[in-house]
Design a protein that fits this description.
By secondary structure, the chain is mainly alpha-helical. The protein is built from ten helices and no strands. The protein is elongated and about 55 Å long. The N and C termini lie far apart (about 55 Å).
């Protein structure tokens, strides 16, 4: 099979899966639904993923790698505190703007050693950015970088925020401001 076609099919499956998982949760999302919507057969799905769990892990790892790339991009272009604030706003937009958060739903349903390692690398990079902002005096040093980084990761993984945004009891602007104030005080 043409490699370009293969990658396009995989991208279609991932896009559909991300949306369905965000809306219905991982457990309620079926391979049958994914392939039906994509217009593919089950064997096509299994050419790309060995199982539904492998698909979920791929979705989570993609989110973590995307966040890491954004962190590196911002860190190289901006002072640490500005990069951190921009990263918080970007992450909240990415994870919550649509009122759906596949990352939050998957984070509680899938946990593998590879994902634990990816999450640890993401949190370590975030801790480093916080520590630099603190060292430059742009943030208080009274709270450890580990606590700040872990809190941000926890916020992004919290499906409760998805529900609050969806039902209108929380706005995206209020979430961004609140998280920035909490973490950057």
């Amino acid at each position: 099979m043409n490699e370009c076609l293969r990658e396009r099919r995989k991208a279609v499956i991932l896009r559909i899966a991300r949306r369905r998982v965000a809306v219905n949760g991982f457990a309620a999302t079926t391979i049958d639904e994914l392939v039906e919507e994509a217009g593919f057969s089950k064997p096509t799905f299994y050419e790309h993923f060995s199982s539904k769990e492998a698909l979920g892990e791929c979705l989570l790892r993609h989110s973590l790698h995307e966040a890491g790339a954004k962190l590196r991009e911002l860190e190289s272009a901006l002072p640490a505190a500005v990069a951190l604030r921009s990263l918080i706003e970007w992450a909240i937009e990415q994870h919550f703007a649509s009122g759906q958060n596949a990352f939050a739903r998957l984070s509680v349903e899938i946990e593998t050693p590879a994902l634990v390692a990816d999450k640890s690398r993401w949190i370590d990079a975030l801790e480093g950015l916080v520590a630099r902002a603190q060292h430059m005096g742009a943030m208080s040093g009274s709270t450890s970088p580990q606590i700040i980084a872990g809190t941000l990761h926890g916020i992004l993984s919290n499906a409760g925020f998805v529900r609050a945004l969806a039902n209108g009891t929380l706005t995206l602007t209020a979430l961004k401001c609140g998280v920035s104030e909490l973490l950057l005080a």
